[in-house]
Design goal:
This protein is an all-alpha fold. The chain has 15 helices and two strands.
């Protein structure tokens, strides 16, 4: 069996196993709470203040309906089975099915994450490669200073600074996803949502103004989300580039008369990208989790609304658990894709992991 295929099969098998372990742990943490407290989490908001409801009778009814006195394996299997059938529960806060509430907000989160990744990967690799090629020169010093600042500033602080300068001060890049007038256009009957990505749907509806406005609203959130990951990727690429440029094959290539530009960008950078991809894989989970914080700060109507709304007034355990599972389902495929890309670029890694 080819090493790449064997590697892919092993990684595909690891995804459901990892999902099983994480979800079992999440539900196990929930089970640590007393049954009466867990029943409170399922009670409708405002029910304790409703004179027509007896809280104790309602609590006992919830315990019976949800089987909260059953053993942990029984409760977990029942809950996981509902998830597999697409029944993620009803959220009293959203007055909607949890899965539908998550899916309705997924395009906004996906668009923000996509543009952040498209920004950080090429900029991180190119800037890090350039800094490594210009070691101890002006370009390298500037890169290292900016990367240090980007790593040192917490994302929420950077977001507030960017909002203060570019929105409150210069009025260039507003928060949210669209202006109020443009939201009415998108929600109107004359606008068709083909993909849910406003930058693309605007073009498909022959409304480039909507696409440009969506891009303007994405600028600050994308910079905030990608900055720390750009710094990490750039630093890794710079270090690997410096190491590659001191290897014998680079000396031989220069001795053969190859142009310096070709030596740096075609040969050295290609080999430096292999460990850089590992850096991207390690940052994937952090980036996806970070997008929710960025959405809250910039008022971006993405999936973060589910977890924020689940904590208002009274905890909405159904929405909170759905959000947790959804987050895991986002991270695992991204990690799988990055692992496969890393194996494609580095046959040595592929062969080593396939033999394990």
């Amino acid at each position: 069996m080819p090493a790449l295929l064997k590697f892919l099969i092993r990684r595909l098998f690891a995804v459901p196993v990892t999902l099983l372990i994480i979800t079992a742990t999440l539900y196990g943490i929930l089970m640590l709470a007393p049954v009466e407290m867990r029943a409170e989490l399922y009670m409708p908001r405002g029910s304790s203040n409703n004179p027509n409801h007896n809280p104790e009778l309602l609590r006992q009814q919830i315990i019976r309906e949800h089987g909260l006195n059953d053993p942990y394996p029984v409760q977990y299997i029942r809950w996981a089975g509902r998830l597999l059938r697409g029944d993620w529960g009803w959220s009293p806060g959203f007055r909607d099915d949890v899965l539908e509430a998550l899916l309705a907000r997924t395009p906004a989160t996906a668009e923000l994450t996509l543009y952040a990744i498209l920004l950080l990967i090429p900029v991180g690799i190119i800037s890090g490669g350039l800094a490594g090629a210009k070691e101890h020169r002006a370009a390298d010093h500037i890169f290292r200073i900016v990367a240090f600042i980007a790593t040192a500033i917490p994302p929420f602080v950077l977001a507030l600074v960017l909002l203060g300068i570019f929105y409150a001060g210069l009025k260039w890049f507003p928060p949210g996803r669209l202006s109020i007038s443009e939201q009415y256009i998108v929600a109107g009957p004359g606008f068709t949502s083909y993909t849910g990505l406003l930058t693309l749907d605007g073009l498909l509806n022959d409304r480039p103004d909507i696409s440009l406005s969506a891009l303007r609203h994405l600028v600050l959130p994308c910079i905030t989300l990608s900055m720390v990951h750009w710094a990490t990727l750039g630093r890794m690429t710079r270090a690997m580039m410096i190491e590659e440029l001191h290897k014998d094959y680079v000396t031989v290539a220069r001795g053969k008369g190859l142009k310096e530009r070709m030596v740096i960008w075609r040969h050295a950078l290609h080999n430096a990208m292999i460990p850089a991809l590992n850096s991207i894989a390690l940052s994937a989970a952090s980036l996806i989790m970070g997008v929710f914080v960025v959405e809250v700060i910039f008022g971006f109507p993405g999936v973060s609304e589910v977890i924020v709304n689940s904590m208002l007034d009274a905890p909405d355990i159904v929405a909170a658990m759905g959000f947790a599972v959804y987050s895991v389902l986002l991270v695992l495929p991204v990690m799988l894709i990055l692992d496969v890309l890393q194996a494609v670029f580095d046959p040595r890694l592929r062969d080593t992991l396939a033999e394990q």
